[in-house]
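Table S4 entry, Cytochrome d ubiquinol oxidase subunit II.
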Amino acid sequence: MQYVVISFLCLAILLYFLLGGADFGAGIIELFTSSKNRSKTRKTMYHAIGPVWEANHMWLIIAIVILFVAFPLIYSTMSIYLHIPLAVMLIGIIARGTAFVFRHYDAVKDQMQEVYNKIFVYSSFITPLFLGIIAGSVLCGQIDTDPHNFVQAYIWGWLNLFSVAVGLFTVALCGFLAAIYLIGECKEEEDKKRFIKKAKFMNVAAVLFGIVVFWAAYSEGVPLVNWVFENPVGLAAVSLASLSLVLLWYLLLKGKTKVLRILAGFQVTMILLAISYAHFPNFIRLRNGSAISLYEAIGPAKTVQTLGWALLLGSLLILPFLGYLFYKFQKKEE
């Protein structure tokens, strides 16, 4: 049953990045949109994420619950040594959600709308930035579980070149996903061209920040090149991601948008697979050279078995209704 729990954990992280990341990316797109086009961007965004944006945080909740119940050592290590970036990310999620609701559904339209707008776009940038920083922190090997002072314990574990580079890379990927998803929501050709341009910009930014990630990994001794290029799965994933990128750009230049969402999701999935496969089952690399493994940090067998059955049975209830929710709101707008 441990494999079922680990599979659900990986799936929850992936889906939160693909779906929740695209939600964050919508705010990033708005942040980098000119003032004259922001109203159109908001309208398209409301159509795309307005009815279902809250459902995407379900995947984050599932991932946190799995870590808390099945992998208490991993959960406690992250909660202690990464509590600052975790707190900033959670505050960003709350601020973004609150601003989204008030600026769209507030009965009184006044100067506070501009405040809500700023909170929404900046929290949409900050949240995936710190999500990426947390991801980089568990990989970089800078978390010190035997620190000598506060800074060593709670700052340098996440405030380092590699983690920040991963954070910026995550922001670019979220913006790219959002631009691709929003293309399919456009009714007018002019809006579609505008989002295609944003998708190209974010894709170039993601490639550039990806290069920065590899440079930062080399500078700080993170064996990212070995993880990605010295095993057949990582090499195949990178190759497929590169091929999908070429095909995606070809379709963008031709103005063909029907399969772009699938290609973008596939590309990001392959990137995550390339980075994580060789590192698996290790979840957190520590400064002392050791690592916390999913297999070694797993909880009692009965707890894991109960959680596994709960996830399997719960997915039978949740996934069909979640799919119906997306279908119903899309159908309503047609």
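The longest strand covers residues 282-285.
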